[in-house]
Amino acid sequence: MIDYSTVFDAVWTALDADEDITRLMGNGAKYRWTGGLLMRVDITPVMCPVLSVGPAGDLVLPYDHHEGEPTLPLLVEIATAGQDCRTGLDLLSAVARRLRDQAVSDRFGEQDLDRVTFASVNLNPHPGRDAANPLWVATFRATLVFRVGTDF
Q1: pLDDT at residue 23, as a whole number
Q2: How far apart are CA 110 and CA 103, in angstroms?
Q3: Which of 51, 43, 44, 62 is nearest to 25 (CA)?
Q4: pTM, whole model, 2 decimals?
Q5: Short-list 36, 131, 120, CA closest to 85
Q6: What distance in Å separates the CA atoms of residue 54 and residue 68, rounded to the nearest whole number?
Q7: How confident is the model at residue 13 (pLDDT cuts 50, 70, 90)?
């Protein structure tokens, strides 16, 4: 049986324990269960860096076998301030690396986790490249894929 809440909590435990992420985040803000970060939070440069990881759409439940493998899609959103986008790129890489490594090492405590996939990577300045202190917003989708035949 897949306990999606427990897996999600294990994702955050892994991210919180990562030394690179902790170093890159400094005194930044973290948001859990928050999708559409820019729509929900008025991010200012002093809040940065900001990390948000929450569920994305298209969840496939274990008992819905005709839809394919059970999944827990996550939307990862990162915001950094300033003209230099490298902190955002470094943080994006650290988060993706930790998700991949943790999926391989202990499967976030879920033995039926098969793999993690990544898609839709974006990095854009907000509100624009010409702003004196733009926010660089990086987003990607990480999908935890579970074995077919997992009981619900």
Answers
A1: 96
A2: 9
A3: 51
A4: 0.84
A5: 131
A6: 22
A7: very high
Alpha-carbon distance 35 to 2, whole Å? 22
Q: How many domains does the chain have?
A: 1
β 29-32/113-126 pair status: unpaired
Host domain of residue 60 = 4-146
Contacts of 42 (CB under 8 A, 6+ apart): none
b/e per residue 99-121 (b: at least 16 CB within 10 A): beebbeeebbebebbbebeeeee
φ, ψ of residue 149 to 5 degrees: the values are 95, 0
CATH code where residue 122 lies: 3.30.70.1700
141 pLDDT higher than 90: yes
